[in-house]
Amino acid sequence: MEVLLTVNDLVTQFRVDKRVTISAVNHVSFTLNEGETLAIVGESGSGKSVTALSIMRLVPNPPGHIEHGEIFFRGTDLLKLPPRKMREVRGNSISMIFQEPMTSLNPVFTIGAQITESIRVHNNVTREEAHGRAIELLRQVGIPDPERRMRTYPHQMSGGMRQRVMICMALASNPNLLIADEPTTALDVTIQAQILELIGNIARERKTAVLFITHDLGVVADIAQRAIVMYAGNVVEMGPVRELFSSPLHPYTRGLLQAIPKLATPRGKPLYTIPGIVPDLSRLPEGCAFVTRCPMRMPRCRKEKPQLQTLQDGRQTRCFLSEGGVES
């Protein structure tokens, strides 16, 4: 498969005050092939959403800025494009489904007006053609009676319906890359399954590459071929989903897998949780960022920072337990 997106040594920083700057994304590199679904997994504060916003060049400045790196989309470095050219890419070749549709949709305009505007911004069509295209998109994402829904305001729709509208707007220009930033957050499990199935069908039918961001590793098995696990702004593990589930390399990945609820859990037994919380990025430990929460830590983990290693099978991990690979 041909490589569609290449992120190389990306560093995105935020200024907390005049003296403190934190790296929310810290030397992150990965590739995404055409038609592939790649998941980025991690707890809140791990750098997943900032990575996506960096690709779209939507990091708020101030206080944030992309300090270093390259983001190649079909051979063009997005970080070197002038703002006007980047606007042509954003929403046209690359679209994004944002995390909370209620805050992403304008409450004073109807659903139809917002989808139609999105279509007309990126396509040379008349208002009538855009209206017809909007109805067809609503029908494709499973919204019943789309003609009537065109006259509906966001607050009159359920969370699942609003998320489908966001997917409509993201698909308005047939993008090559769809970034989905936790699109199932706050949805019940039935609607979550429907949204995941919808995104999976879109990826297969349109051969659209998907960068799927989630904190739920259980979702990844159903939708992605490869996964990146992030922690405190760093990639700690990367590889095919099948191998990641069957033989996780990093203790953090193992903890995320153990935290997935299982039907076989005995009644009364508490669910597994990773102890502690993601560290403050302005006060990271001297050694491994995961050291204070890791059940397999060694003395050297408190003093030395592990490097991302590439193992013989091509998988990558940032842990001393997997020494013997080649530093990336």
Short overview:
With about 325 residues, the protein is α/β, with parallel strands linked by helices.
Describe the structure.
The protein is of the alpha/beta class. It is built from eleven helices and 13 strands. The chain has helices at residues 48-56, 83-89, 101-104, 111-122, 127-140, 146-149, 159-171, 189-206, 217-223, 241-246, 251-258, and strands at residues 3-15, 21-33, 37-41, 64-73, 76-77, 94-97, 177-181, 209-214, 226-231, 234-240, 309-310, 316-317, 326-327. The strands form two sheets. The chain has a nine-stranded mixed beta sheet, with helices on both faces. Strands 2-1-4-5 form a four-stranded antiparallel beta sheet. α4 (111-122) packs across α5 (127-140). The longest helix has 18 residues, at 189-206. It starts with a strand and ends with a strand. The model has no long low-confidence stretch (mean pLDDT 90).
**How many strand elements?**
13
The rough form would be described as globular
Strand content: 15-25%
CA-CA gap between termini: 22 Å
SS-based class? alpha/beta
Average pLDDT confidence is: 90
Continuous helix count: 11
**Unreliable runs:** none
**Series of H and E elements:** EEEHEEHEHHHHHEHEHEEHHEEE
Strand order of the main beta sheet, please? 6-7-8-3-9-10-12-11-13
Major sheet, described briefly?
Answer: 9 strands, mixed
Q: What does the radius of gyration come to? A: 21 Å
Helix content: 25-40%
